[in-house]
Specification:
Blueprint: E1 2-7, H1 13-19, H2 22-32, E2 38-43, E3 58-61, H3 73-87, E4 92-95, H4 97-105, E5 110-112, E6 118-126, E7 139-146, E8 148-150, E9 158-162, E10 170-173, E11 177-180, H5 188-197, H6 199-202, H7 204-213, H8 220-231
Parallel strand pairs: 1-2, 1-3, 3-4, 4-11
Antiparallel strand pairs: 5-8, 6-7, 6-9, 9-10, 10-11
Length: 239
């Protein structure tokens, strides 16, 4: 496997020494799920991209504190790259910001969630139990941290996961797009750090509820196995 990770943010200096970056989080997650081969990480905020995407089996877009609909120059450059990759049918994986940006490039509406922040461990209905490594499941729990979300399922996409809070929580397009709103790469300690950082913004009730939810664990490892299966070419459109 040769994976290009487009890292769309940098970590808070308070936790950078421990977690390194979102690209490193994904590499750890996917290697623990059985992925082998080469992982190349490029920070798009700093304008870093590979000279060519041709040699990569897939491109993964990480989360970001930025809005997918932002007019910041680096976001507009990234959108242009993603549109080109979509046209070429390069395999794309999007998480959180990456999920939203790919959906936006596919013509879906993306914006601020009127219900506010999604935070902590959140539960979703899993709509495609036949996916490789889905293990026939009907639900999935993942760690979330987002104030934006995708409002419409992109044309031609298959809905993978949904909830009342986040109707388009994950989707796939044929066998070349796999996107998920919550964060399979997060660990509970990192989620707790983000919750503490945003405690005032979230409000005490949501902060306490989200913090307590972390003790229940999450299914990030299962999602990672599904992502690896997607990259390796096993069907992602199974129902």
């Amino acid at each position: 496997m040769k994976l290009c990770i487009l890292e769309n943010d940098s970590l808070d200096p308070a936790v950078e020494a421990r977690y390194v970056g979102y690209g490193a989080m994904f590499e750890r997650l996917l290697r623990n799920a059985g992925a082998t081969g080469q992982f190349d990480i490029f920070n798009t905020v700093h304008g870093a991209y590979p000279a060519s995407f041709d040699d990569y089996d897939a491109v993964l877009l990480t989360g970001s504190r930025a809005d997918a609909f932002s007019q910041e120059p680096w976001v507009l450059t990234l959108r242009q790259k993603v549109e080109q990759l979509l046209q070429a049918k390069k395999k794309l994986i999007g998480v959180c910001f990456g999920h939203q940006l790919i959906a936006l490039c596919l013509g879906a509406r993306v914006g601020r969630a009127p219900q506010g922040w999604g935070a902590g461990r959140m539960n979703y209905q899993w709509k495609t139990p036949g996916l490789p490594y889905a293990q026939g499941r009907s639900d999935i729990a993942l760690l979330a941290s987002h104030q934006d979300q995708v409002f419409d399922l992109p044309e031609g996409a298959t809905l993978l996961a949904t909830s009342d809070f986040c109707p388009v929580a994950a989707f796939a397009v044929d066998d070349h797009v796999f996107c998920v709103q919550p964060h399979p790469e997060f660990v509970e300690e990192y989620s707790a750090f983000l919750l503490n950082k945003r405690r005032t913004l979230l409000g005490e009730e949501k902060y306490q509820s989200a913090s307590q939810s972390l003790s229940a664990g999450h299914d990030g490892a299962d999602m990672a196995r599904m992502i690896v299966a997607f990259i390796e070419g096993r069907p992602t459109s199974a129902a």
